[in-house]
């Protein structure tokens, strides 16, 4: 059973470009969480999604950031018009049934904005 | 009120020592407290977790102590090994229906000397 997969592992963008991060949850998992980790800091919750639904996006900036988890395919975290402050590691985690279940993390996407 | 304060920021112990990492929270609605281990370049991995109705939980060399009245919990690593060198994060989760809060501590960098 493959773990949580994220791609790309590294992404370099220039200011103003769009960044698109993908997360494929573990097989059988329908809950996906996105987190951001700045260097030397802990993880900050961004958004919690189930298939086709956003459950909680309270941690996600209201502008330029969006997330989706379609019925088919991976979850996507999209950052429009990136700025240098968006440089961070973005992790997704998946769970089988919800917040009380163990979350399994992917290896992360390291975004660098030049 | 949503913070989880983790200490120390870094810790160095000799092989066989017992590092202790502490976390404190304020929100009494948190009802699940996991610990994660993260190696450089990897995503966090769940180590052990506890619910507030239990004061202690052991899994192998890892023990969580939980003090509900003080709103504190700690991770102890018995007989620590160089392979335990990693960053450890505590987290506090509120899973009551209709809400979702998943707060991470800022992390503790542990180095176990051979």
Quick overview:
Chain A has 114 residues and is mostly beta strands.
Q: What does the model show?
A:
The complex is a heterodimer of chains A (114) and B (114). Chain A is an all-beta fold. Chain A is built from no helices and 11 strands. In chain A, strands 2, 4, 5, 6, 9, 10 and 11 form a 7-stranded mixed sheet that branches. In chain A, strands 1-3-8-7 form a 4-stranded antiparallel sheet, with no helix packed on it. In chain A, strand 5 and strand 6 form a beta hairpin. Chain A starts with a strand and ends with a strand. Chain B is mainly β. Chain B has no helices and 11 strands. In chain B, strands 2, 4, 5, 9, 10 and 11 form a 6-stranded mixed sheet that branches. In chain B, strands 1-3-8-7-6 form a 5-stranded antiparallel sheet, with no helix packed on it. Chain B is globular. The N and C termini of chain B lie far apart (40 Å). Chains A and B meet through strand 5 and strand 10 of A and strand 5 and strand 10 of B.
């Amino acid at each position: 059973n493959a773990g949580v997969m994220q791609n790309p592992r590294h992404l370099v963008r220039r200011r103003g470009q769009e960044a698109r991060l993908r997360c494929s949850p573990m097989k059988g998992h329908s809950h996906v969480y996105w987190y951001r980790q700045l260097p030397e800091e802990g993880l900050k919750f961004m958004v919690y999604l189930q298939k086709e639904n956003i459950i909680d996006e309270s941690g996600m900036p209201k502008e330029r950031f969006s997330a989706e988890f379609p019925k088919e395919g991976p979850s996507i975290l999209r950052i429009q018009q990136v700025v240098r402050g968006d440089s961070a590691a973005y992790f997704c985690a998946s769970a089988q049934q919800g917040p009380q279940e163990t979350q399994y993390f992917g290896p992360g996407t390291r975004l660098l904005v030049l | 009120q949503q913070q989880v304060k983790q200490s120390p920021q870094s810790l160095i112990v000799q092989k066989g020592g017992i590092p202790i990492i502490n976390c404190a929270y304020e929100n009494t609605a948190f009802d699940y407290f996991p610990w994660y281990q993260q190696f450089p370049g990897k995503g966090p991995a769940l180590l052990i977790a506890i619910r507030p109705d239990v004061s202690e939980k052991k899994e192998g060399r890892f023990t969580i102590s939980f003090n509900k009245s003080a709103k504190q919990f700690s991770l102890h690593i018995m007989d620590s090994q160089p392979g335990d060198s990693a960053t450890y994060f505590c987290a506090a989760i509120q899973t009551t229906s209709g809400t979702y809060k998943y707060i991470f501590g800022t992390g503790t960098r542990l180095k176990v000397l051979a």
